[in-house]
Amino acid sequence: MIVYLTCGPRLALYLDPNIDAATRKVEVEGSPTLHEILADLGVPEGLFAYGVIGERFVKLDYHPSPGEHVRLEVPVGGG
Fold it and tell me: Is the pLDDT confidence value at 77 over 90?
């Protein structure tokens, strides 16, 4: 199945984009979680905290559907 992962331009080097400057088309077997997909791509643990699909937030244990576009977001901190 194909999944599309997008992130901000400063972190795009970790995804090795192949669609545009910040989007990676990934072909995966079965129904892996976002965490498993990122690990298979060699993305450092903890770099991304969650995903956004449309206006819905998803955890990294989410299993994306075929053709789904997931925007990856970094951890945020507040003061």
Answer: no
Per the structure, the complete domain to which residue 54 belongs is given by: 2-73
Number of domain units in the chain: 1
Q: Is the pTM of this model over 0.85?
A: yes
Question: Is 51 inside a domain boundary?
Answer: yes
User: Given the structure tokens 């199945």, which residue do they identify?
Assistant: 1
Sequence-ordered list of residues with C-beta below 8 angstroms from that of 17, at least 6 positions apart, any chain:
23, 24
Each residue's pLDDT tens digit, 25-43: 999 999 999 999 999 999 9
Q: What share of the chain is helix, strand, coil (3-state, %, to 5)?
A: 20, 30, 55
